[in-house]
Amino acid sequence: RMRSVLRGCGSYLPARIMTNAELAQKVDTSDEWIVQRTGIHARHIAADDETTGTLGLKAAEAALADAGIPASEVDLIIVATATPDHTFPATATQIQAALGVTQGAAFDLQAVCSGFVFALATADKFLTSGAAKTAIVIGAETFSRILDWDDRATCVLFGDGAGAVVLRAEEGAGTLADRGVLTTHVRSDGRYMNKLYVDGGPGSTKTVGFLRMEGREVFKHAVVNLADTVRHTFEETGLTGSDIDWFVPHQANRRIIDATAHKLGISEDRVVVTVGEHGNTSAASIPLALAQAHMDGRIKPGQLVLIEAMGGGFTWGSALIRW
Ligand code: ACO
Predict the structure, then answer these.
(1) pLDDT given at position 76
(2) Which end of the chain is more exposed for a tag (fewer CB within 10 A), N or C?
(3) Which stretches make up the Beta-ketoacyl-[acyl-carrier-protein] synthase III C-terminal domain (predicted)?
């Protein structure tokens, strides 16, 4: 049985850091309010000449370097993003060209904050079916461009950044001891669109639009849906929270992360948390967190890593990876 083995991981954050104190000069908020409700202290913001494509490219290059795999071997590039550089073509094809890749396929995938989980699940199907051999899965976002900077309820929550992983199709034994993506689950339910959406687009205002959110409602659904998707993983594999070496959740909010880890029986010292310094970077948050924990030596080869996310749509999902 073929497995999608994770060969490398990389990330990129814009240099510019915006603190809560700086935000408090723009809107009626405070460091104390933001930290208490979200755990966020600061976020990175793209410079005028930076885009989702340029951030994603740097993350992809870092992941390829970490893997020691040349770009010429890549035959699948998926970019999970809700903030593409252009309405079309896909940001993935721009990154493909910048990497000098002319074979295989590149496309964007839109599942907002769950985008990386959906893209990983999609790449896994390509690799395990034999449709591709070497994939880069990128989560890249510039949410600063779709924020209403006068809306204190949303502008304090998000940041920009990108992360990427390189996956390669390799023979496995078909057991949970195999390295690679062991299982993925993805879900969506479009009835909840109005809880979290962007009010623009070609089919509405014909402008890019701004993010709109009913925060309390999103919070409630997030904790329920995230526990539910991971429960499927546990049922399928016979594992429990205590078997997980590292829990790397989508980084939306410290309180959602803590509540979910508690529900799943995963102890605090096994949770990778980056939301404090990154804010919510949507589809980029999981690969950014994976890259950080990989680089600082926390995640070691052979360990079990559980990822999960929930976002606009609603969309949600999870994946279990043996590193
Ligand atoms: N600073 C100060 N006060 C604020 C701010 C702010 N930045 N934002 C809102 N408030 C005020 C509100 O105006 C409201 O005041 P009022 O009572 O006078 O009307 C009060 O704070 C409470 O507002 P709520 O929205 O009810 O606050 P809540 O406790 O729910 O916290 C928050 C808001 C942090 C957004 C919370 O609902 C949350 O974390 N939701 C999850 C949303 C999320 O993470 N979304 C990310 C995308 S989806 C995902 O990735 C999972």
Answers:
(1) 99
(2) N
(3) 235-323
- Residue 208, both tokens: 């890019």
- DSSP H or E run through 305: strand 304-311
Does the annotation count 113 as an active-site position?
yes
- Find the residues whose C-beta lies inside 6 A of ligand 1: 29, 33-34, 37-38, 113, 152-153, 156-157, 196, 213, 215-216, 218-219, 222, 250, 252-253, 280, 310-311
Q: What are phi and psi of 42, to 5 degrees?
A: -160, 165
Give the CATH number for residue 102: 3.40.47.10
The one-letter amino acid code at 54 reads: T
What is the token pair recorded at 56? 């994603």
Same-domain pairing of 109 and 135? yes
Q: Are residues 184 and 212 in the same domain?
A: yes
98: left (phi > 0), else alpha (psi -120 to 50), else beta? alpha
CB 161 within 8 A of CB 144: no
DSSP β-bridge partners for residue 163: 11, 139
pLDDT of res. 69: 98
CB 60 within 8 A of CB 100: no
Structural domain count, the chain: 2
Which of 25, 30, 31, 37 has most ligand 1 atoms within 8 Å of its beta carbon, as the pocket-test mutant? 37
Intervals of the chain under pLDDT 50: none
